[in-house]
Amino acid sequence: MLIDDLEYEWKELAIDVFQLYRDIFDVILNTNKHRAAVHFLVYMLEAYYFADANAINSVLSTNLKDYEGDVETIRHPKGELKKLFKGFDEIKHGGEIISILDVEHVLSNLETCASLRTLYKWCWTKMGQVPTDKYQLLNGKLSEVTKSQ
User: Quick check: pTM over 0.85?
Assistant: First the structure.
C-alpha cells in the first residue's frame, strides 16, 4: 500500500498522481496488482487530528472542539497546530495524538473524510471483512480518486 499526503497545491493533479502510482504498481505487480492500493491523506495526516479534538486537547492541553466541517479541507493542518501550540513537534506530539486518536469518531460523519474512509474500506475488504456501519463503510462518502481500487 502506498499512502501519500495530497498537498493542497497538488489537489488539481490528484487523479494524475494517483494514476502514476497506480501504473507503477500495475506494471511491477502484473497479475497481483489487485493486492496493492494507492491512497491519499488529505491534505496531510495532521488534518485528521482536528476531527477528534479530545486527542489534541489531551496532548497539547488545548480546549478545542471537533472541527465542524470536513477536515480534509484544512489547507495546512500542521501549520494550524503550530499556531495553536507554540513548539508543536510533529514527531513527539503527533505520535502522542495518533496513539489516542479515535478513528471511529473521526470517520463517524458520513459526509467527511472520504479519502481516509476509502483507505479503511480497502483494508477492511482486503482482510476479508464485510463493510459495516463501523467507520461508516457502508454509506459514508468515498474518495472519487481512489475508490475504484
Answer: yes
